[in-house]
Amino acid sequence: MTIPRLLVVDDDAETRAMLTQFLQQNGFIALPAETEAEIQAHLQAGRIDLILLDVMLGAENGVEICARLRADQDVPIILVSALSQDHQRMAGYAGGADDYIAKPFNPQLLLARLRAVLLRASRSASLVYRRKISLFRFGGWIYDGKRDEVLSPQGFQVALSQRETDLLKVFLANPHIPLTREEIHLALDDARAGDGTGEGGAEISGRAIDMLVGRLRSKIETDPKEPQMLRTARGTGYILAVDITVEEPQ
Structurally, how many domains does the chain consist of? Predict the structure, then answer.
């Protein structure tokens, strides 16, 4: 249920904006960057699941940046370049790139390659997640994924509807990340897909998201009118504004 958080690195402002918008429209959180310094700032500020890195960055070289990142980062990196000779591709892979896409490219092919790299990167980690990571602590609260239970700081179980639980899990998977209503919609729609309830799509979009957030706040906030955990992100949507720890239940 984690929304993939991508970094789009290109020194051309128009290309950067176009790619960022395209990825956002296709269910990703996409953040723009122009330089290696900006890449490092994003990596230090929060989770990045994949970097889409242009090779030609003015005075900087994407292959060299990739090699330096790979020295201490496991984040998947896809290089993008108009340089598509075999030796240029090999240099990219030698620098630690997970994939190399030549310009110009079909946008749908880019999506397919992005998803394939993300899937490969997450496959082993997701097995560990399902086996071990199932207890979330946040703001004194506990969500036990194994039992699908929510416990208050006082130790009382709080009843959430399935939809409210799905929403909570979206925020727990994306702490300190402002999520738009559309991103929440996509995550909830994915969670409900194939469950046979018919809930999802338009039913959880727009104003319904606001109402759902309001119901969750009424159950986990001390003062729902002045929320301290599930806050409104002005001009964006909502953000879980507390640290979480994740552990295996005893």
Answer: 2
CATH number at residue 208: 1.10.10.10
Which of 166, 144, 169 lies closest to 157 in space, CA to CA? 144
Task: Indicate the residue among 74, 102, 128 that finishes a domain.
Answer: 128
Whole domain around residue 159: which residue ranges? 133-247
pTM as predicted:
0.59
CA torsion, ordered 117, 121, 127, 129, to nearest 10 deg: -120
Q: Could you tell me which of 229, 236, 228 has the C-alpha nearest to residue 209? A: 236
What CATH number does residue 109 fall under? 3.40.50.2300
**Which residues on adjacent β-strands are paired with residue 136?**
143, 246
Report how far Cα 162 is from the mean position of its chain's Cα atoms: 22
Q: Would you write out the chain's pLDDT as a tens digit for each of its 250 residues?
A: 578 899 999 999 999 999 999 999 998 999 999 999 999 999 888 788 999 999 999 889 999 999 999 888 888 999 998 887 888 888 888 889 989 998 888 899 899 999 988 887 765 444 444 444 578 999 999 999 888 899 999 999 999 999 999 999 989 888 888 888 888 887 787 666 534 444 444 445 578 999 999 999 999 999 999 999 999 988 888 999 998 888 765 5
